[in-house]
């Protein structure tokens, strides 16, 4: 009997496959293509205290094996999410992970309190947005700031807190450790890698925002390396993501130590990509006489 | 539940004009039932591209569906090299279509924007004005000539029809009056001018907008356009809220 379920920071997931924030909206669109209850969990579109319009288009550029996006946190705000989107998502038997972005630790705490009170399963803290107070430095690029945000959210949240780490740093392990020390219940990584494209004929940046976040298969090896490094250094569970587009990629993330695995950009090619990973993993474990993810998680076979 | 992506067999792929191609696909009943003028297919173009390419449906005939598209990059180039018997990985039809209610209606197309308008003409008798850069780049002329009562063509260089922009033809038609609606597809500058004209003549205009697209189903929020609805300005999703919008709701870039 295959068991794909995972206990993640005290929350039981029916399987280890989730969908990444920003690629799945609030689930309504993809619910037309498959039963959302087939997913282990859903990381919803990033939320802010106030509604946000997002960046002007063009917001997407294609790159070899990847895409750059600069949506700019377009969202209806945390209150509208709780009122109009969460009840819809609660109609499905899957874990709901709320992704939050703030300008100050106080904003993060405000949102975390509301979402915790609303009964969200896990709060995912996006520390990649710039800290206005510290002069625009992203919280996630400084261990002290990342720890400060972690503490602010942990103080008010009754549900597990997961910090989503930025790969745009010199040493992701030091940030991961700082978050763990500050009380984070889990970590998710990686967020997108900062990149840009220029139209060679006109000299104009393709994205109106000039730079954007790179996602897709192109970043998978980087994501896998960082997941492995972080899993080797911390004891809290990790949700691995970044260019995971098939069962093989998801299994690699498990070997590297991830407890949950997220697919994102892969959905743009195939709306059923995450469901296919669930099915593919079932087949893999059955064919290899394994019980499930627990048989390979973090069991990377290093060379002597 | 909608089905995910499906494979459709190519019946014919041919060049119509410089960089413009036509593909006839064998489509299943579900796709044909959902095909409407203005809606698009989101097509996987594997070589070198991760994202699907949104291509408007040009017409249907029996169990076949036609796409007419311009080669703009690697993805569409790959698409233009398909041959009879190849299959295409397709998501859709997606998006909102043109509202063909009321009439008489006038179709206004610029360049490759003519393609989805032919589907309108197939569904309902309309008039049409179409403009192309030149006679070499003109497509679907005979189709429009037989599907429309009064199809008029122009070109920027005078090598086809009158030497005029299609918006000039549009204004003449609006001035002569009688139209209850205009449906337009083409480059954004053309649509912006058309929006101004139709506002001046108080004729409702629907426009099919284009934007670089991601998921195609409305989840990723990258294909935005600026819209005013219920007195509130914000971004709408071209793939899901559009690609067809009421021009009176669109906020045009300067």
Describe the structure.
The complex is a heterodimer of chains A (304) and B (254). Chain A is α/β, with parallel strands linked by helices and 304 residues long. Chain A has one domain: TIM Barrel. Chain A has eight helices and 16 strands. Chain A is globular, with a radius of gyration of 18 Å. In chain B, a hairpin with a 2-residue loop joins β1 and β2. Chain B is 21% helix and 36% strand. Chain B is an alpha/beta fold and 254 residues long. The chains are: A alpha/beta (304), B alpha/beta (254). At the A-B interface, β5, β6 and α7 of A face β13 of B.
Largest sheet of chain B: 7 strands, mixed
Highest CATH level, the class of chain A: Alpha Beta
What is the CATH superfamily of the largest domain in chain B? Answer: Nucleotide-binding domain of ferredoxin-NADP reductase (FNR) module
Predict the CATH topology of the largest domain in chain B: Rossmann fold
List the helices and strands and how they pair.
The complex is a heterodimer of chains A (304) and B (254).
Chain A: E1 6-8, E2 11-13, E3 17-19, E4 41-43, E5 60-63, E6 66-69, H1 78-89, E7 95-100, H2 105-117, E8 122-126, E9 130-131, E10 137-138, H3 143-156, E11 161-164, H4 172-181, E12 186-189, E13 193-196, E14 211-215, H5 220-233, E15 238-240, H6 247-256, E16 260-263, H7 266-269, H8 273-287
Parallel strand pairs in A: 3-4, 3-16, 4-7, 7-8, 8-11, 11-12, 12-15, 15-16
Antiparallel strand pairs in A: 1-2, 5-6, 6-14, 9-10, 13-14
Chain B: E1 6-17, E2 20-26, H1 29-34, E3 40-44, E4 52-61, E5 64-70, H2 74-80, E6 87-94, E7 105-110, H3 114-123, E8 127-132, H4 141-147, E9 151-155, E10 162-163, H5 166-176, E11 181-185, H6 188-200, E12 205-208, E13 224-229, E14 232-237, E15 244-246
Parallel strand pairs in B: 7-8, 7-11, 8-9, 9-10, 11-12
Antiparallel strand pairs in B: 1-2, 1-6, 2-5, 3-4, 3-6, 4-5, 12-15, 13-14
Helix pairs in contact in B: 5-6
